[in-house]
Amino acid sequence: MTPAADLVPNLPEQDARWRTAGDRIENLLQACAAGGSVALDRAEQLVREVTDLYGAALARMLQIAASTDPAVADAVAADDLVASLLLVHGLHPHPVERRIADALDGVRPYLGSHGGDVHLLEVAPPVVRLRFAGSCKSCPSSAITLELTIEDAIMAAAPEISTIDVVTDDPAAHVIPAESLLARLHDDGRRHATWQPVPTLAELTPGEVGGFSVAGAAVLACRVGDEILAYRDGCPDCTRAFAGATLTGTVLHCPHCGSGFDVVHAGTPVGDAAGPHLEPVPVLLRDGVPAMAVAEEVAS
């Protein structure tokens, strides 16, 4: 018998098309608003009817498949596109606790590359409680980087979560509303960070350093083994750009003042962990394409 996985064609262009279907539907609904409130109401009702119809059919298909082979539920949940539809219809086979735990496991290698980790303490929708560990406890820019990465993973896996309660060793634990997780970035004159696709990141070879312009910001990226690490372009010591910088192992050397920064551990300066450090920029593989979370610069 042909394995179920072999029955699904591997068509990246179609996969990318369906991932943006939600945006196209929203644009069509907005266009209907030009015809007045009645036209908009009818369009929204049509979308609801179609969505409910396909949701009911999807529920029956999942029930039939799972009754034939219980492993099908796990295989279906492992496909992020299908899983997103299951979440919309409340049909995901895994409880919210497992979905969040799996999401954190997925980003944990990235957290480790910045010297941090996260522990899941409690899930009580719409709130999830986490504890940070490692450099993210004491490094402000690293904490912001890791919080954004974690927020993105949790929101994709568990849309019913709206608040992330981050507990640190500091008694003054803080509650971070998901929609304003990076509000602190407003203090340095930038807008909220958004994920920006940067496909050319994949072309970096191990040990290579490259400069990128992302959302109007200058970003420096390098590859250490299989891991791509990115930082705002600018030496904290001499304030000059890193053009011409070299990477020795995990240490990035400023071509102007010679300062070294550990790119694996949140850009901390070599020999002085408490000194000025690089500002990390999150990098994740989203829908098969490398992306950076960069706050757009406010126009002067």
Supply the key terms:
300 residues; 15 strands; elongated; four-stranded antiparallel β-sheet; disordered N terminus; iron-sulfur; Rieske_2Fe-2S_sf; alpha+beta; 7 helices
Whole-number mean pLDDT: 79
Main sheet characteristics: 4 strands, mixed
Radius of gyration: 22 Å
Question: Spans with pLDDT under 50 lasting ≥5 residues?
Answer: 1-12, 171-191
Number of strands: 15
Overall geometric form: elongated
β-strand percent reads 25-35%
Summed up, the helix count is: 7
Report, as a whole number of angstroms, the end-to-end distance. 64 Å
What is the helix content?
25-40%
Organism: Mycolicibacterium porcinum
Function: May be involved in the formation or repair of [Fe-S] clusters present in iron-sulfur proteins.
Pfam family, one: NifU
Domain Rieske: 196-292
Q: Your description of this structure?
A:
The chain is α+β, with helices and mostly antiparallel strands and 300 residues long. Helices cover 35% and strands 27% of the residues. The strands form four sheets. Strands 1-2-3-4 form a four-stranded mixed sheet. It has a four-stranded antiparallel sheet with strand order 6-7-8-13. Strand 10 and strand 11 (260-262) form a beta hairpin. Helix 2 (21-32) packs antiparallel against helix 3 (37-68) and helix 6 (96-113) runs antiparallel to helix 7. Residues 196-292 form the Rieske domain. InterPro entries: FSCA_dom_sf, NIF_FeS_clus_asmbl_NifU_C, Rieske_2Fe-2S, Rieske_2Fe-2S_sf. It holds the Pfam family NifU.
